[in-house]
Every structure is written in C-alpha cells, then in structure tokens.
C-alpha cells in the first residue's frame, strides 16, 4: 500500500460492509468525493479488493484512492473462505460482524504509523458496533453510510424504537444515530419527510442524500467483477431485440437464492408469458446448500424451450448495462434499494417480490405510497402462482401502465437531483466541504 497521500488533501478511511449491494454504492460515493479533492483509503479483505478495480483505474494518476488490505480474522461459525455476504445467508450476519470487529487492532496500528492519518471514518451502518467506538479511540469522526431504505420512510421513528429492543441491532442503530454525519443513498425529492425525521432523531442537520450516483465504470474493469457471460455477448443479444421495452429482466441480487420450487414456478411463468427475457441466476454460496442441492436449479429443458426468446445467465451479470438498454422494459426483483435505484436510472418498471430485511420497507414506499411498481408476491420462501405471474410479466411491458408513468416522473426528479445544482450534487459538494474543514 502506498502512503504517498498529500497532506493538502483531507483523508478519510472507508470501511464498507462486505456485500455487493453495500460496497458498490460506497465506491460510487468515494469516486465523487475523490473528484472533489478528498483522499479515501478503503479497508477491505483480499477477496473484496476486486470491487475497487474500476475506482482505482479511474484515479490511477492521483493518490486520491488508496487501499488497506487486511485478512479477515477467522470465526468458528463462518464457512472457510467466506468474506462476502453473497457467500453465505443472512443467518451469518452476526458472525460476519464479529469477524470484522477483530480488525479493530490492525486498523489502530495502521493509523498510528500513517504519515497523514484519516480525519474521519466513512463506515457502513452495519459496521458501527465496532467502527464507531474505533473512531472514538482514534479521536476522529464517524460518518455513517446507509445504502438502503431500512432506516428511511414514514416509519423511521417507530422503527428506531423497535430496533432498540434488540441489543445488537439497537447498538448498531444507536451508534449510527450518534455518528457525526449520515450519508444516505437517496434524494430529498423522494424522501423529504424521512430526511426531516432523521435529522430530528440525530438532532443535527448533517444528513446528506447523495443519490442517484453514476456507477463507477472503467475500461478494462468490470463493475462487481467478471461477468458470467461476456458483456459484448449480452449486448449483442439485446441489440437483436427489434422492439424497445420488450424484454423483462429477472434478478434477485447477490444475496437471494431461490429454491427448486421457486425456480420451477418462475421458469414456468417465463415460459407461459411469451415475453423476451434475461434471467440472472445466482449461484448458491457457502451456507446455502442443502442435502437435496435444490438451490438455483434451472428447470430441466427450460433453456431449450426458450432458446432465442430468453437468455439465462448463471452468475454475475452486467446489470447496469442491461437495465439501461432500450430493449428492456421491466425488471422482476427483490426490491433491494440498490436494485431499485438501478432500475430507476435505467427507466424500467419494477415488479416487486420483497424477500427480507429492508425489502418490505421499500415495497411500502414504492408500491403502497407512490404507486410506482407492480407487486408480485412477498416472502423469502413464497412460491408464486406461475399462471398469474406469467400474466403480470406480459402486462408489465405495456407502456401506458399507471405504475410506469408514476415511476418515470420519479426518474425525472432523480435525474434533476444528480445534475449540477441538483439536491444530490449539492449534498456531495457540502459533504466534501465539511470533510475538508476537519482538522487532524
């Protein structure tokens, strides 16, 4: 690791939560801060280093992006080699936090030996049980990063009180609220009331909505890692689709794995619907296999039956590129916040199947409050009715659906927020300015 950080540039340490949907948005924020003169050191474990490749490539002529690569301490309850939540299930959440918390001492040693140590820690809220105390020991500020809707919406205050009942989650949320500042991957035009509620809870105005953000991409470096199917092949397939908004994209993020019955119901629905589609199938990770091996199994003969009309990709996909393509019209997803934002920027209608955690809060916002997405079903173990789902898939491509019209109005607000002078752009400017005013 290079230590040639300019003393003129304020320096912060970024500690992401090891999940794709958390690392990538922090990378996007770091890119924007680096463009505004902030130096960022990313603390990551070896297997998560590749997420930073596009960011490092874009800033290779400066010292604004640095890395601190630390081995993940072993934990008796974590499967060997697991360094990212996509390798395991949500049941391993607490064990991952406990393993990461053992990086406390190595980071202190690094900090003490650094010629220009950071003036703040930009930490994912999932890490605050140990990063907030760490910042206190180091005598620097904590800026909490929240890449989800879990803490937002009209229920933010009741959610805060509810979470305090559980010691671990209550501690995490308490430390997040006690942070010097909060960076939210949202924008005030969609969340104005919840921003005010969060400021009231935190008792200060240092709350920044910095989304939507342009995804960090660089030539020669694939976002999130190498795709299971080369991007040019996916692009060629999409280019061959003669009608705009005629393709349904199906994907459930990096942490959701469907069981055999769900895969069969979804496959049957795609078959019956007659629509063109791309289906991204996640490979099961450590901790999600079972004795019958029925996770992520594409139904027998399915790919032959839909050849030409459908594309099944097993593994990582160039999702942002797919969602922005003119041929894609709708997106069946779990309503993870990052996926929702990518769908918004791509201009595709969302079909919601919330599975866990913040997905249900996102559904409440986008379906119940805004009327800007189509509900499909709910629950991690729910098996959808294939005939009903087939009809939803086919109907979702209609351009005059009220949900699509409402979603496109929200998209216009998002694009304006991201422009120079927009709310998200100004929030990034203010965040960088305030960090620049920190004194070592």
TrEMBL record:
GO terms assigned for molecular function: UDP-glucosyltransferase activity
User: GO biological process: any one?
Assistant: flavonol biosynthetic process
InterPro entries, per this entry? Answer: UDP_glucos_trans
Keywords (alphabetical) are: Glycosyltransferase, Transferase
Gene3D superfamilies per the record? Glycogen Phosphorylase B
Family assignment from sequence similarity? Belongs to the UDP-glycosyltransferase family.
Enumerate the PANTHER family for this protein.
Answer: FLAVONOL 7-O-RHAMNOSYLTRANSFERASE, GLYCOSYLTRANSFERASE
User: What name appears for this protein in its UniProt entry?
Assistant: Glycosyltransferase
């Amino acid at each position: 690791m290079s230590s040639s950080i300019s003393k003129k540039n304020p320096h912060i340490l970024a500690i992401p939560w090891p999940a794709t949907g958390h690392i990538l948005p922090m990378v996007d924020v770091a890119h924007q801060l680096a463009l505004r003169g902030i130096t960022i050191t990313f603390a990551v474990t070896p297997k998560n280093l590749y997420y930073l490749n596009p960011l490092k490539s874009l800033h290779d002529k400066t010292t604004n992006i640095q890395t601190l690569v630390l081995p993940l301490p072993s934990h008796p309850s974590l499967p060997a080699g697991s360094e990212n939540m996509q390798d395991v299930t949500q049941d391993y959440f607490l064990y991952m936090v406990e393993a990461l918390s053992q990086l406390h001492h190595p980071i202190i040693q690094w900090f003490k030996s650094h010629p220009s140590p950071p003036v703040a820690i930009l930490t994912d809220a999932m890490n605050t049980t140990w990063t907030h105390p760490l910042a206190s020991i180091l005598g620097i500020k904590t800026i909490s990063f929240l890449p989800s809707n879990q803490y937002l919406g009209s229920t933010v205050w009741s959610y805060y009180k509810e979470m305090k009942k559980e010691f671990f989650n209550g501690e995490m949320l308490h430390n997040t609220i006690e942070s010097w500042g909060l960076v939210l991957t949202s924008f005030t035009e969609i969340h104005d009331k919840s921003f005010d509620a969060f400021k009231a809870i935190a008792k200060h105005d240092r709350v920044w909505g910095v989304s939507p953000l342009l995804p960090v991409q660089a030539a020669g470096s694939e976002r999130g890692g190498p795709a299971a199917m080369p991007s040019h092949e996916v692009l060629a397939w999409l280019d061959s689709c003669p009608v705009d908004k005629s393709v349904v994209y199906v994907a459930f993020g990096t942490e959701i794995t469907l069981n055999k019955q769900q895969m069969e119901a979804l496959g049957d629905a795609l078959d019956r619907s007659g629509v063109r589609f791309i289906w991204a199938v996640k490979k099961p990770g450590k901790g999600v296999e079972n004795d019958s091996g029925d996770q992520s199994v594409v139904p027998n003969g399915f790919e032959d039956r839909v050849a030409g009309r459908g594309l099944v990709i097993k593994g990582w996909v160039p999702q942002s590129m797919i969602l922005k393509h003119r041929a894609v019209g709708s997106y069946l997803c779990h309503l993870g916040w990052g996926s929702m934002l990518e769908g918004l920027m791509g201009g595709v209608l969302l079909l919601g199947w919330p599975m866990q955690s913040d997905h249900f809060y996102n559904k409440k916002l986008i379906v119940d409050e805004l009327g800007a997405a189509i509900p499909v079903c709910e629950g991690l173990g729910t098996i959808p009715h294939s005939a009903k789902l087939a009809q939803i898939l086919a109907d979702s491509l209609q351009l005059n659906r009220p949900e699509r019209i409402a979603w496109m109005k929200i998209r216009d607000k998002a694009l304006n927020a991201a422009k120079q002078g927009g709310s998200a752009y100004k929030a990034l400017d203010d965040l960088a300015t305030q960090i620049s005013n920190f004194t070592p």
